[in-house]
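Why does residue order matter? Because the sequence determines the fold. Keep that principle in mind as you read this record.
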Amino acid sequence: MQRIRLAEDEVHDALDAARSFMRVVGATVASWWLSEHSTPTDVEQRLLERGLRVVEGDYLIDGMLLTSPPPAAPPEIEARALRSAEEFVEMTEVQYAAFEFPSARRRDVAELVDDYLLNAESDVVVHYGAWLDGRLVGGGRSICTPRGVLLSGGGTLPTVRGRGVYRALVRARWDDAASRGTPALAVQAGALSQPILERLGFEKVCTFHRLEDVLDEA
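Structure:
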């Protein structure tokens, strides 16, 4: 849930509507991204009172922007858009390992294939993988807009961190954004990725507070 601009009397209804939508699509976890522009001014406290929670280490998130080309990828790493549902399943498993996803929140193969095929019908959401020594070791996603590309889900297997995999994924998504005529990347960066993105040329433009809503706990 982003760009939250609610009137004083709309907070409860908005939360109820979001939870209803989660039930319809089968989602169990939602993130609410708040900033200094969110309204009403006490919206965070109201959401906390309705059952949302702060996740330690994943609460203060930097909004960062890149408008010039990042460094090139290491030559030994291939980063590109995924070409099949099989690659998407493999990439998602890499992300699960990179982010230490609990088993209860992992989707099965059939759900992942359905997700890939749904996104493949449009050019708005594009998934990427990075290969090192012929093995898929990192992944990420682009959400394409008329003004630029929002990056999300960038992750690398712990065993190959420090070898430029994340950098390669950023560069691949930059190149595709530039080819679309929208050479700008935006990202919501946590403590792990913020230093890397800063070294790649991203600049902080705002700060988000991320609240988590777990449906079966609401």
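The longest strand covers residues 203-214.
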